[in-house]
Amino acid sequence: MKDVEVKHTVAEFEEVLRGKGLRRTIPRMMILSILVESSTHLSASRLHHLVTAAQPTISISTVYRNVTAMTEHGLLHGVEYAGQTRFGIAAAPHHHVLCERCGVLADVAVEDLAQTATNLMARTGFEISPSGQVLRGRCRQCRDDRRPAVACRAPSRPVA
Amino acid sequence: MKDVEVKHTVAEFEEVLRGKGLRRTIPRMMILSILVESSTHLSASRLHHLVTAAQPTISISTVYRNVTAMTEHGLLHGVEYAGQTRFGIAAAPHHHVLCERCGVLADVAVEDLAQTATNLMARTGFEISPSGQVLRGRCRQCRDDRRPAVACRAPSRPVA
DNA sequence: CGCTCAATTGCATAGAAGTTGCAATAGCTG
DNA sequence: CAGCTATTGCAACTTCTATGCAATTGAGCG
Q1: Which residue of B has its CA nearest to A83?
Q2: What average pLDDT does this structure show over A118-143?
Q3: CA B49, chain centre distance (Å)
Q4: How confident is the model at residue A152 (pLDDT cuts 50, 70, 90)?
Q5: Which of A1, A159, B8, B63 is the right S-S partner for A103, CB 3.0 to 4.6 Å?
Q6: DSSP for B1-58, written as a single string
Q7: DSSP bridge pairs for A56
Q8: Interface residue of B84, B108, B126 to substitute, partner A, most A CBs within 10 Å
Q9: Protein B148 CA to nucleic acid D6 C1', in Å?
């Protein structure tokens, strides 16, 4: 698998933010650096938990407003699963594979879907997004579990 | 595009239900026939709306319990988008393309992702589900709208 | 056909995820 | 440092989904 974990720095994002009229605030920077450091996708509540560890007064709605804004501005992207959205850095375009049993998320290089995207575009008329796709399946650990996947809510172990 | 709309009859499902110890109840049959007839994917509230048109006393929780049960038994599958799940007949295995601007959902033949699934399996160790995938993009109507997609909620026109 | 028993339903209640109005605060820019 | 706008905290709220419980119903059986 090609290396899709191109590490971006928080400093890099500050520039982008300024260019978009988004201010460099404490909560915003904390969310960004948490996501950059961990290089994973985290839910709003998980982010809030981590953020408040250092700055206890930051509210959950601030987290929501920030991830929403940064997503709209293309800095982050969200992956919906089991009734909640996890957010991750979108700077390095990539797709995902998601274990629909345990909720684990892994990154995949965009090239791995390029041909499919072209085909689907031709067949459906849809312009397929060149990044941020989520393909579902079973991770190595869950592969042998034959219980069918639940569509609505609640994976078998808590989502990050 | 290959024809993925293999029409299944409600009668066909009754057998499956019996085999699984699921009773042939009014709400269950109505939900199934609505989904078979319309051959689309519908949200719980939309289903409830349609069901109550004929049987006004059927409650939304009954709808939820039914789509959940039938999903767990493999008769239906759910597609999450914009904070809600739409359910459709799973009998004819297929994938989907979803317009992330307007929420429109279209079916795609499983073959269109077969090669990709194989590749991803080799690269990630994930066993990719052979049906029920959702690829995101823009439908023909929304293709020219440059507003970025919103990750959290609320597509620009109401979801079915 | 009526009986029995588990599956299912309606209702009301609960809960999680996400949104929003408003007044106060804090980044930028000059 | 002054001023303007973006942002924040708080609290209230909406939407989607889940669940406990008592009443009802479907399916097989005699």
Answers
A1: B83
A2: 95
A3: 17
A4: very low
A5: A159
A6: ------PPPHHHHHHHHHHTT----HHHHHHHHHHHHH-S-EEHHHHHHHHHHH-TT-
A7: none
A8: B126
A9: 21
